[in-house]
Amino acid sequence: MKSSYKFILGLAVGLTVVLGIMMTAFSLPAVKSGINNVPIGVVAPNDATYDKLAKPLSDKGFKVKHYDNVADVKSAVKERKIYGAFELSATGDLSLYQATAASAAVAQGLNQIGQGVVTQQKAAAKAQLAPMMAQTQDINALKALNAKSAAVDAKTLKVVELRAFPKDDPKGTGLAAGALPIALGGWIGAVAIANVIKGKKQKFFAALAFAVVGGLGLVGVIQFGVGTFDGNYWLTSLGAMVGIAATAYFVLGILEVMGNGGLIIAAIMLILLGNPLSGLSSAPEMLPKGWGFFGQLLPPGATGSLLRDIAFFNGNAIALPMTVLLSYIVVGMILFALGKKSTIVVSETTAE
């Protein structure tokens, strides 16, 4: 039976909708990315100094919190509460405490802002010294002013790295590039299991085996091949196993209930939306407002955050990604248990 023109038109419209979703998901984050409530800290000797630095940062889109001392800042960074912090001393010296492993993009942005503040400080100091140097006739006073001018020229932003990527991958490119393999690899694996493995129980255990072996392999490549990770290999692999299991069982569950039609839903969630909204190349708070959080509710974003938190921050802040991934596993298993597509396929094959 030939396809009707009505069906052809409907298919064309449906594919156009998918194309529109793909274009929106990939282009909007790139065009609209910026600072959207990125949490950072400021250490200042008094409220006036704090307000002087915090207000411009808030205007730029940062979510600024006042910390009493550097020790509290270091704890907050390691606990994943903030991405970094500025310390402005009573003498005006500016220090930046950053964690490149939390987000290389945020660290770079904070560096640029810090350098800009120091440049403004130097310009203001020079403007004060210039008329004094022009008016003084005293040699000793002039020498003192020249010394102050030299000190101003030598002023720099002090950068303290709290958690960096390993030297083999200082910018964390391997983790940023891993968004697509995490999304696409889990989807392909689940589809392969659904179509190659026969029997419902066999598919269930195949997905489990894929999660275990795939997790070990994925982290092995990132840690020993690329050099992005330097944490506990087994714990990080366990996180990857949870992420792959979430994808595999969710896709299997949809396929078991909807058949091949479920592939479209899985592809949209995991690849078209999950990949660009994962925030792995920047940070969830640097994506358009609302999109970053939504991306963390999808397996690729949750898996990426889980791996980052385990590998670099001793498992701090894993509650959200673990909850998200375990929810996908549970929902996927429920759908897999309720679905009958495998039974139907087996019955048809037996009947033939």
From TrEMBL:
Q: Per the record's keyword annotation, is Transmembrane included, yes or no?
A: yes
For whether the record's keyword set contains Transmembrane helix, the answer is yes
The protein's UniProt keywords, in alphabetical order, are: Membrane, Transmembrane, Transmembrane helix
From the record, give the transmembrane residue ranges: 175-197, 204-226, 232-255, 262-283, 318-338
Superkingdom assignment: Bacteria
Q: What is this protein called?
A: Putative integral membrane protein
Q: Which organism is it from?
A: Fructobacillus pseudoficulneus
